[in-house]
Amino acid sequence: MTAHTGKPTLAVVGATGAVGRVMLQILSQHADIWGEIRLIASPRSAGRKLAVRGEEVEVVALSEEALSGVDVAMFDVPDEIARQWAPVAAARGAVVVDNSGAFRMDPDVPLVVPEVNPHAARSRPRGIVSNPNCTTLSMIVALGALHAEFGLRELVVSSYQAVSGAGRAGVDTLRQQLSLVAGTELGTSPGDVRRAVGDSTGPFSEPVALNVVPWAGSLREDGWSSEEMKVRDESRKILGLPDLRVAVTCVRVPVVTVHSLTVHARFEGEVTVGRAREILDTAPGVVLFDNPGAGEFPTPADVVGTDPTWVGRVRRALDDPTALELFVCGDNLRKGAALNSAQIAELVAAELGAL
Ligand code: 2RA
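Above: the input record for the complex with 3-amino-D-alanine. Below: its predicted structure, written as tokens.
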């Protein structure tokens, strides 16, 4: 703990990125439990000033010295930077909350969603706690609540992923492409959008404006994408269900922020929509918004900037009384990244006696 305040020192590593900026907003909105909040980024961002808790704080370059005297370090940096620097921070005494993919499946690193498996954060042999991928996080709070009562057996999921999942470059690319196609008749003949967009596909393989792209991440065995494997592997680990059957197709859509998913969830026995709705209505971190007759179901345009997991279109499967169909939306930069990291950091701070 910081000697002069008795409150823990928090480092935000990757403070200038898309998720880092949201972390600073969240830290400014949540109860002020931290002593110093140290902002750390790559050397090229050092010296910039960012606002947190109403104060301008200078960003310092990532170094061993910058990680000294830190109690909790939230990392949002590329996998290779996390792989190198998270163990350095841990060796210097910090508990690391890491939002990269570097450690999520390490058996000595817990993968934590505070509403689902908060107990897991207490056992961290490497001094690192991992934050799940934003696509997993956008659905898992609702599924964890249903699993606790019904016992999950199988998931069949399709994602509709926002471009901010690919960082600021993803957002810049969509906005640039939209400016190229706005006010045109494009989208009426094969390849016309592709020709208008040209090489401006940014981090995506295909045009994303006026399009949907059934791909996110990199190629894995047998045609699966890394993003699809993350949803499967991480759901199993968080729920403690190593044999859970999971089939996922990840799709990128022209939405700035908020990942949406359709979910077919099969349980141990028969389920009722009435009981499922009661569970979702009372689950912490979940909002049930489900009255299609009145046009009420979650959409990214309404969910963006909010904290909960929003659930609508709750139905029992027509051909399987043990299965539910759901439509789920979550802000991929908030619960999908910065908020869940902040919640984990707060769990650790409570354990350190700061709350
Ligand atoms: C994406 N889930 O949406 C990834 C980012 N972690 O691209």
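Notes for the reader.
The mean pLDDT is 97.
The domain at 10-131+338-354 is CATH 3.40.50.720 (Rossmann fold).
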